[in-house]
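Re: beginner question about structure tokens

> Can someone show what the tokenized structure looks like for a real chain? I only ever see the sequence side.

Sure, here's an example I had lying around. Input first:
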Amino acid sequence: MSPTRTTRATRTHTLVDLYVPARLGPAEALQKRAAEVGLDAIVVVAEEAFELPNAEAMAAISPDGPRVLTATMVSGPGYRFIVFLPPGHEVNLESIEATGDARLVQAAVAELGGLALAVAPRQAQGGEVARATPQLAPEPKPVIVLAKAGSHLGRDLDLEDAAIAERPIYGASGPFAQLEDVGHYATLLPVDAKDGDLALFGQRIVQAIAKARGFAVELVPKRSQRPALPDPREGRNDEQDDGQRKRRRRRGKGKGPASEG
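And the corresponding structure tokens:
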């Protein structure tokens, strides 16, 4: 009898939140929240340059928890991008933002070997919704549409724009999220969450986005974590209702009330 050969199952997908605002807390706390909701990785996005986690903050992150990547957000009239740049690249993003054109921003980032991923293009920070269809570059094709909070109308328009342009839809907490929102929307990418060091992992995430791999995921809480539904009988006077039901008499078909005499 030949010995049984066993193979170790390898998880080749990563559930990643591509936009966790850095303003929500230190990287260590964001990693803890990601672990609580079952994410494999998060991208901590600095909306201002000073928000990027420093070396000390990154050193406090647990090597056994979800992986933590960083990126920077740039925005202008009718566009918002997460900018991923190769390690060691220091770029004046304000000069890129100053172009004021979505396609030029994406082209400038691409020339640096990076990637600019569109995020809720129709939605402005103050809740306003852009009327014009955003003019995005053909590549990369994906766009983050499913995000927490923001404008429902803006999200509907973003969904419609993505469908018309045949762009894959990604999910993330997004620019309007609070800490409790982390883990509601995410993106499943075909990248092994535990393979390679952090720099190599980050490169593979960017490559998967550039190739338009993966899709948005909405994470539903476990049944035990869902809020209890209200009792439909709550507030009813059941004893009185029972008495009324007992006093009701059912009339037979075609029979009216009995006549006197």
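Each token stands for a local structural state, so reading them left to right follows the chain. Residues 103 and 138 are 9 Å apart (CA to CA).
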